[in-house]
Amino acid sequence: MSITRKRRIFRASASPPRGRSRGVAFVVLTAALILTGGTWLGLHPSSAPASTAPPGHVDADGSQTRIVDGNTLILRDRTVQLAGVKAAQRGAVCRSADGAPFDCGAAAANALAQIIRGAAVDCALNGAGDGGRALALCSAGGREINLAMVADGWARAEPGIAALTDAERAAKAGRKGLWAGSWIATE
Q: Which pTM does this prediction carry?
C-alpha cells in the first residue's frame, strides 16, 4: 500500500447541508414575523389616521379622545389641560339645590363628555400647566370647550381671561351647573 494515497473519511451528517439550514432559518423567521403581526419590523402600520393638526395643535376624532376629569383630556396619546379653566376634581363633594351631596368632579367630567359628544376635538397648545400637561384652548363641534365648561357652570374661570370670568359670573347668576347648589372651593 502506498503512503501517498489519500484516505477518504466519511462522516455521518449531523447537520443538514448549508443551503438547507438557511432555508429552515428563513421559514422560522417568516413564521415569527407573521405571528407577531408584522410589528417586529414595523411592517404593520397603525390603523389610526395620522394627525392633520399643524405644529402647536393636537387633534383627534371622538374615538381617540378620553376624558380624565372636568378640565383634562387625552387626545390620541397627548394629555392636555383646558387653559383658564379649573373644574372640581373627582371625589370633591358638592351639594345640589336641595342640599343632597354629590361628586361634583364626576359631574364636571360628565359635562365635558356631553360637550364633546364624540365630535372631533382640536386644541391649540399654549404652554404647560399642572404636572407638565400642555395647556390648550380646545374646540369640538364648532364650540369652544373651555368657554362652554365655564358658561355651563361646570368649571371656574382662572383670573386673567375676561371672556371666561364674564361667563362664570353669568353662570353663577343663572345658577347653572354646579352653581345650582353649593360648590366647595377646588384646589
A: 0.69
